[in-house]
Amino acid sequence: MPKNDYLCGWKTINRPEEQDMILEKIERLKAEVAGLTAATAEEAEALRIKYLGKKGALSELMAEFRQVAAEEKKTVGMKLNELKALAQERINQVRQSAESASEVSDGDLDLTRTPYPIPLGTRHPLTVVRNTIVDIFSRLGFTLAEGPEVEDDWHVYSSMNFAPDHPARDMQDTFFVESRPDVILRSHTSSVQSRVMERQQPPIRVICPGRVYRNEAISARAHCFFHQVEGLYVDKDVSFADLKQVLLLFAREMFGPDTKIRLRPSYFPFTEPSAEMDISCHLCGGRGCSFCKHTGWVEILGCGMVDPAVLDANGIDSTIYKGYAFGMGIERITNLKYQVKDLRMFSENDARFLAEFQAAN
Ligand code: DAH
Question: Is the pLDDT of residue 144 over 60?
């Protein structure tokens, strides 16, 4: 670099042909950098030092740049910055590909692996609805309780006040183990009521989702297994009005704020009085349509005040405590919400069916 300009007292000294030389160098280096390759991480590091290191090609150019005439600094500076960015980017690329190449040696390259990205799945509609139900009741102070699917007669029937020969048992025929007749698959989640009460004194406020089994021929409207959610509240001074209020709130959260409910007298061995709850048909708004069979109402759950015999059988003093309970089928609620026509679709695992619930996820 000519130093004589210091003698003249000028700040910058480069003559136009020297500036052209710097620009030429920049262009040459750009082309060089663009073609860099490295087989190993060490080679990539050597390239970094060569171009971007303290004594590297770019530092040299910076030193020359300081000599460039002020009016040319902007143009040359921009070119220099471009070169620096390019060099950094290229050397990073080269290092990354050298590193990943060394991670996969020929020996463990899995050629059977799909080259296509595996798409993110969606939650099963029954899971979505179960989570919504549990969420609504959690906000009302209910906690989650679970029990075994492989149960015994006591928890499924006897402790729930089903007399040994009562015809209510036939309505919930399940699967038995031949060599151990006492072992059965639970036919309803009401068995979890018994499981909770036998180990906990009131106040009890639980919500129990789970799979249940019934000995039924499989069709569009019945399956040998399905899912239920059970609710149980036991405390002093629990009334039917409390039950009704909680269920109304649930129905409105689940199906919309205009939903109406109606309770019809019914029979379950474990509740007295017992009721079945209908909601106003949310498809026709209660006016009547083919979905609600032109009644304006659709049934969604069973409920009632816990029979004192159930409390006593499960170690809770029925002279002090009262309770309410309810149980609903998750498939049923899902059908109402999404109009799934055939129960079998829930367990066929057809990805096209499941993908339809993307928005619900
Ligand atoms: N366990 C009943 C069934 O599977 C549903 C049910 C009805 C549960 C009334 C309850 C209840 O807790 O109070 O059909």
Answer: yes
